[in-house]
Amino acid sequence: MADVEHVIGLLLGTEDDWPRAYEALLRRLGVVTEADGRTHRTRSVRVTIEPFNLRSKPQHDLVIDRLAYWYYHPREWLKKIALMDDVYLLNSPFTFQSMEKHAAYCAMIRLGLKVPETVLVPFKNPLDNSRWAYTASRYNQSFDLDATAAQVGYPLFMKPYDGGAWVGVSKIRNATELHAAYDTSGERLMHLQASVEGYDVFARSLTIGPETMVMKFQPDKPMHERYAVAHDFLTAETGDEVVTISRLINAFFRWEFNSCESLVKGDQVHPIDYANACPDVAITSLHYYFPWAMAALLRWTVYCVVTGRKPRLDLDTAAYFAISDRTDLSYAEKLGEYRKLADAYFETDR
């Protein structure tokens, strides 16, 4: 028996490959001993979905959530155990529910990141709400979709403001494609986002706690070939910028298991997608990088429970905005200051 026993919950949907790998690694880990001799043993359980009393006490110290972004009953359970029981969550359901891709764009533009020009357009179809017709007749302004697209510039992408897995994303090259995509968008709010043409590298970075793996991503290939095994596709400076952006985003929103997609053109890094509540960690996708991902997940989750790391549900946005609003700092200097805040949040010095 160890001095302290910890339980990590796995809240899962259809996945079984990485959970089995994680569970096996955790069993092999055995007892962890602190410098003072105190011992810790950690085990995992798969979370089941059932009615829960708001005053019931969970057995978990930490939960890895891969389900609540679409299944709302367990999402509300996560909120309960975070608010009432201080259970550590990967990731925060609060910010992933309210800070979808649109809000994430807004925040990072405020911080000065080089997000491509982006416009949010109204719904194509009327909402299924009895108040919509009256409200729209009084307050909705008619707009010229072609003129709006022209302001962004062709080619562009039409993409859901809150989507994932590339669902509903269309590359738009002309007005005909623009109207065809908008007509099929229905009741989904859509962004028009400028395309970064002629980019040199599509970089996808997977961040787990304080660790980030930047991978060369090939979106046009089959899923099992998209993560290229390459280690010299970015300069040291650009690679460090991609890591900084990834860590900044996660620390800002309190996300600790997230991926970030960036397009690199010359020495410019353009983040285009970085709010992924359930990042791809399937072995059939990551292949070469899968062992790193599982080891990083093991390291961070065990670190959190053994050290008693406390969940941070509050956001310290003012500290980041204070840096972004300074006129005496260059972009690189601001990134350096953001990195300090992010490193402090993830306790990288430990």
Task: Describe this protein's structure.
With 350 residues, the chain is an alpha+beta fold. It folds into 3 domains: 4-97, 3-Layer(aba) Sandwich (Rossmann fold); 98-113 and 199-345, D-amino Acid Aminotransferase, Chain A, domain 1 (2-Layer Sandwich); 118-194, Dna Ligase, domain 1 (2-Layer Sandwich), CATH 3.30.1490. The chain contains 12 helices and 14 strands. The chain has helices spanning 17-29, 72-85, 93-98, 101-110, 132-139, 145-152, 175-183, 236-253, 283-286, 290-307, 317-324, 331-345, and strands at 4-11, 31-33, 39-46, 62-65, 88-90, 118-121, 156-160, 170-172, 190-194, 201-208, 211-217, 227-228, 257-265, 268-273. A 5-stranded mixed beta sheet has the order 2-3-1-4-5, with helices on both faces. Strands 12-11-10-13-14 form a 5-stranded antiparallel beta sheet. Strands 6-9-7-8 form a 4-stranded antiparallel beta sheet, covered by helices on one side. A hairpin with a 2-residue loop joins strand 13 (257-265) and strand 14 (268-273). Helix 1 (17-29) crosses helix 10 (290-307), helix 8 packs across helix 12 (331-345) and helix 11 runs antiparallel to helix 12. The mean pLDDT is 93.
